[in-house]
Write a structure and sequence with these properties.
Blueprint: E1 9-12, H1 17-22, E2 27-30, E3 33-40, E4 42-43, E5 48-49, H2 53-70, E6 78-85, H3 95-102, E7 108-113, E8 123-130
Parallel strand pairs: 6-7
Antiparallel strand pairs: 1-2, 2-3, 3-8, 4-5, 6-8
Helix pairs in contact: 2-3
Length: 134
């Protein structure tokens, strides 16, 4: 944790070099909330990314699940999700993946179309989870 981090804040790292280079945490636990940063489809153990958007979405959720578990939460605690895709036409290919991970939870959701940091990235997913009921 950074010496400048406010009291009660816990930072969770994935080990990705981007976190230190850019200056952010994979996730931040603050009180009853967990804020998971925009997460891409990189496999952090190999720093490889699949070219297929659905495969990237699956890896995004696997990375998010790991961060949530490190913060004492699970996918079932997700209350908000933001999807950022670089091409709206590719978004429907992700629907089976989003249904697999979130159909039982059905969080509030928004999809944005935007350029992403690396041209290999096709989707980035950000979630907010609430632990107050635990």
């Amino acid at each position: 944790m950074s010496a400048d981090a406010p009291s009660g804040r816990r930072l969770i790292s994935s080990g990705s070099p981007f976190e230190a280079e850019i200056g952010y945490g994979r996730a931040v636990v603050q009180g009853d909330w967990i804020f998971v940063s925009g997460t891409t489809g990189f496999d952090y153990s190999t720093m490889q990314i699949d070219a297929n958007i659905a495969a990237q979405a699956e890896q995004c959720f696997a990375n998010i699940d790991t961060a949530l578990r490190a913060g004492g939460a699970s996918i079932s605690d997700v209350v908000r999700v933001h999807y950022i895709v670089n091409d709206a036409a590719l978004w429907p290919a992700c629907w089976p993946v989003t249904q697999k991970w979130l159909s039982a939870v059905r969080p509030a959701a928004t999809m944005f179309v935007a350029g992403l940091q690396d041209p290999r990235m096709k989707i980035e997913i950000e979630v907010t989870a609430y632990l107050g009921s635990k």
